User: What shape does this take?
Amino acid sequence: MGRAIAACVLAERIATQLQKRVLIVEKRNHIGGNAYDYYNEHGHLVHKYGPHIFHTKSKPVWDYLSRFTTWRPYYHHVLAVVDGKKVPIPFNLNTLYALFPPRYAEKLEDLLLDNFGFGKKVPILQLRESSSGDLAFLADYIYNNIFLHYTQKQWNLKPEELDSGVTARVPIYISRDNRYFQDPYQAMPQQGYTEMFRRMIEHPHIKVLLKTDYREVINDIRFDRAVCTGPIDEFFDYVYGEMPYRSLDFRFETLDQEHYQEVGTVNYPNDYDITRITEQKYLTGQVSPKTTLVKEFPQVYIPGRNDPYYPIPRAENRERLALYLKEVKTLKGSVLFAGRLGDYKYYNMDQAVTRALGLFEKEIARPLVVS
Ligand code: FAD
Ligand code: UDP
Assistant: This one.
């Protein structure tokens, strides 16, 4: 169910390793889940559901996906507009010098180096808790100018109302490395994500049913096992209430100019209703006299009205999730759950692949024992 990354990995594994037949049921009219990309009317490869940059620490994930695509090396760079200046994100030593007078920046740099050491990554909430004096001033400055309003726009919550891991995704990095990610493997699929997924599921045992909600067909299909990569609460008819998600509205614009901004993404923590603008050609490497941008407008998620893009990681939601996970146990392995919506976890693409590969090895490659 669901024709996204986790579903494609599972289908590929089941078809090629177990020689079993797989039916993928997807309610949208295309493959790839939220990593889907396509060529727009200007010939620009764009990511329909927001910018997707592949990065991972996992060699097994990299090797696995490399069977289905070649890669274009790409290091993502992000600037944020702060105090009218565009400064590097994650906040690093270069950001310090871009925002403060040189003498004071030097003082702050020394304090960061003394307290944490070169090369360390410090989440903003940790920096705020552990600092005093000038470092406390710096922590408050970063919190107020980079994290607070961006997070309120994106999640409708303050940073401390979310699991600390959310803002820790973009830590203060005590280095001069301006790249958004430091993973050893960072690249874009050369022919795009959709083509990579198409190759994964190109197998006589794999069939795909598009534009179909699995709930419409589940009672008409005979199957040994199902894997749900759609929302876990939807599967159980919201018996314990809705799991909250955040949605986004993506607005695309194509401009009659070669470039719009200096790097792939510019964040707007404090201005406008958007969180960020991404210029697609930086990610894809396409050359064109025009350029396509995508602006992200965060939205409240309303079932049936828009899409659930982000599970919201915080304690009260984990409590509700635990109730659903108890229900999963009663299914005794006949239905498994995976992916960002099925697991209700803020996965990156590589984590969704790891989860699917793990589920295959641990649960699916073994025969189902019903007691
Ligand atoms: P998803 O991509 O979540 O797709 C779920 C699929 O299930 C959808 O196609 C949906 O239509 C289908 N579905 C839902 N309900 C039903 C139903 N009832 N019946 C049938 N089908 C159904 N990750 C990165 O690694 N790098 C990035 O730069 C990055 N950027 C992102 C930017 C944005 C704006 C977003 C939203 C996500 C980003 N991600 C990024 C995360 C990435 O999208 C996910 O990790 C990945 O797509 C998760 O895949 P998945 O298999 O869980 O399914
Ligand atoms: N964040 C922020 N300001 C920024 C960048 C990120 O406050 O300039 C916070 C915000 O809460 C965001 C989270 O860090 O949701 C994770 O950012 P990331 O870029 O990883 O988000 P994603 O690409 O998953 O939307």
In short: The longest helix spans residues 133-155.
